[in-house]
Amino acid sequence: MSLKLKNPEIDLGQIQIENLFISDFMPMASGSELKVYLMAYYLASSGNGDISNIKLAEKLKLPLVDVLSAWQFWQGKGLVTLSESDSEEFDVEFLSIRELYLKHNYIKKSIVKKSAKTSVLIANSLEDDMLQELIKSIEETCTKRPLNPEEIRIIARYIKDYKMDYDLVYRAFYLTYIDKEVKGSPFKYIRKVINNWYDNKIYSLADLDEVQDEYSEINNKIKRIIQTIGMSYSNAPQQVKDTISFWLEQNNYSEEYLIYVINQTAKRTNNLNINFLQYQLNEIKKQGAVSIEAAKLYFEKGSKERKKPNKNQAKTKFDNFSQRTYANMSPSEIESIIKKKNANRL
After folding, report:
1. Which long-range contacts (CB under 8 A, 24 or more apart) does 77-84 make?
2. Residue 229 and residue 234: Cα distance in Å, rounded?
């Protein structure tokens, strides 16, 4: 394939995009993030930078939330600065990528010897021995290639700004590249993993192991409850798993309580399903307590109401029938009845 530029016959103007943006930043950005950056950069370069995020979203035919998310993304990459604001409107200033590299003591690839790894030299410039070891482990085990300067800056940010242990950052890479074998945009997946851990206050392997143990315990409870309902865990719909998880984690129902309610409900219906179980749990809760004792009272009360006769039920002629048996009749009475029956048959 050959790529060529044709000289334009009519010049309507153009903007200059730094080569480093194309080579290092564009591959890691989504389509929406690229649209926002390029359109806003074009407007700023042409003197039309006085535009709101709402108007920018309309111009790009994007949801406003995508525009705001894109600015957060580019701010995180260090390519723009955003003024402080409590609303969705703020000032944006574009920064030079070349200055960004120089400011962080990054070494240009053009001056790096071919026999040396660019990423290792950059890590050396950061004067962090543990970071160098982390970069080396990630390159050898996960990426199978040297990391570029921006990727190393991202990793350093996870450690510095997110306050995460080096081992935890390595676990995120191992999970992405080895366990999940994520293709396409592994760094985006890693960012989601890191953000999720940060939101859940996971900063070390010890924190992660504690959360995973708790998750494993909850998962085992869900499996046992699903088996009590009469399903296999692998075939159970996700809605069922999510509902049981909600009972355990949000409603704080104990496993023993749920199993008791399920068993008692199963005795009273041939159509045991998650919606009917939810109804039963709601009815028990209306009594003011959530416990096995409260459930017992609920089911006992229901049984008594089902057995209680209905005084308003209409009587039939059979209710007024006074039964007489042949044992209470005399021989002559029996013979008379037989003769009448035989006469009717003739």
Report:
1. 77/25, 77/150, 78/153, 79/21, 79/25, 79/37
2. 14
Q: Evaluate if residue 113 carries a pLDDT over 60.
A: no
Residue type, 327: A
Break the chain into its structural domains and give their ranges: 19-99, 104-202, 208-307
152-168 pLDDT, tens digit each: 888 888 888 888 888 99
CA–CA separation, 55 and 338 (whole Å): 102
- Report pLDDT digits (tens) over 15-62: 788 888 888 888 888 889 999 999 999 999 888 888 999 999 999 999
Determine whether 2 is exposed, middle or buried from the number of CB atoms within 10 Å of its CB (0-12, 13-18, 19+). Answer: exposed
pTM of the model: 0.37
Q: Answer for the pair 237, 202: CB distance below 8 angstroms, yes or no.
A: no
330, 331, 332, 335: CA torsion to nearest 10? 130
Residue 93: strand, helix, or coil: strand
Q: DSSP H helical segments within the chain, as ranges?
A: 19-20, 31-45, 53-60, 64-77, 97-103, 118-125, 129-137, 149-160, 166-174, 186-199, 205-229, 238-249, 255-266, 274-285, 292-307, 331-345
* Residue 181, C-beta contacts closer than 8 angstroms, at least 6 positions apart: none
Residue-wise pLDDT for 230-266, tens only, equals 888 888 888 888 899 889 888 889 999 999 999 999 9
pLDDT class of 308 with cuts at 50, 70, 90? low
Compute the distance between CA of residue 42 and CA of residue 299 in angstroms, rounded to an integer.
Answer: 70
Pair of tokens at residue 73: 């993304």
Amino acid (one-letter) located at 12: L
Query: What are the tokens at 17?
Result: 């995009």
Using 50, 70 and 90 to split pLDDT, how confident is the model at 143?
Answer: very high
CATH of the structural domain 19-99, one choice from 3.40.50.720, 1.10.10.10, 3.30.470.30, 3.90.79.10: 1.10.10.10
| Mean per-residue pLDDT, 180-192 | 88
CB-based contact 208:171 (threshold 8 Å): yes
